[in-house]
């Protein structure tokens, strides 16, 4: 599989997104999760992404277990800071933030310097590792100023000390990351859903990133499922909610173009971000070995330049 460089760190162009093995939306058994990690490795994937948020630490623990017997120098791992996991004083039984896990812990927002360091220490313990390659400030939508003033400088300090390899931010919007690219010495932005076959609103961020030498890792290439099937169905999700009629219609127009050329819409959706030289990897959730193999096939599917031209029209 092709590799691209993020601040000198070589990532495979397809990354394994760890939210699904953290029981996102549905429970995924440990055996199935570990089989997915094994299939990703067998398929040449060497970039794995996770976060404390994903299953209240379950994703980190499972990835740590799944990668424990792999040579540490042969893969890249990223995790995130911004949500500390602390004991839940009033557990109700199940997490209420989208993950099918027990709510014995609760997330606590913290973008302070001390919070960043504590989060990394906790992640290292859950992962069973002694270093993390890339650390993203995670979803600081309501804390942008603090992230710029405290969290990113704390990560830059750790990067300069050689504790981590690259400093990033991961968000579902492009405006705040644009500020970070312009105002800080950040290395990489994980941009979710804003540079896709359907939603190209993140173009100003990509342009600024190119000027500053900042890498982009693209996440959520299917826009929460709208582009995940050959023909987008009624009720398909966009950005975690039912797609508005105009976006559903546009997705179907894209599907028409693909069908005309004998291309599957999900194949084009997965490959689209990688057409930009600023995008170093596309990260997808893959909850089973079957899903991993399907995603690898999508990445390898041939798409002619004429099809891309029609999709860009």
What's the total helix number? 10
Which oligomerization state do the chains in this entry correspond to? single chain
Beta-strand percentage? Answer: 15-25%
Described by strand count, sense and barrel closure, the largest sheet is: 8 strands, parallel, barrel
- CATH top-level class: Alpha Beta
The percent of residues in helical segments reads 25-40%
| Sequence stretches where pLDDT stays below 50 over 5 or more residues | none
- Arrangement of strands in the largest sheet: 3-4-5-8-9-10-11-14
CATH topology: TIM Barrel
The count of β-strands is 14
Considering the protein shown, what is the CATH homologous superfamily?
Answer: NADP-dependent oxidoreductase domain
Global mean pLDDT: 97
Query: Which structural class best describes the helix and strand composition?
Result: alpha/beta
**Overall structural domain count:** 1
Could you spell the SSE succession in H and E letters? EEEHEHEEEHEHEHEHEEEHHEHH
Q: What would you report as the Rg, rounded to the nearest angstrom?
A: 19 Å
What does the overall shape look like?
Answer: globular
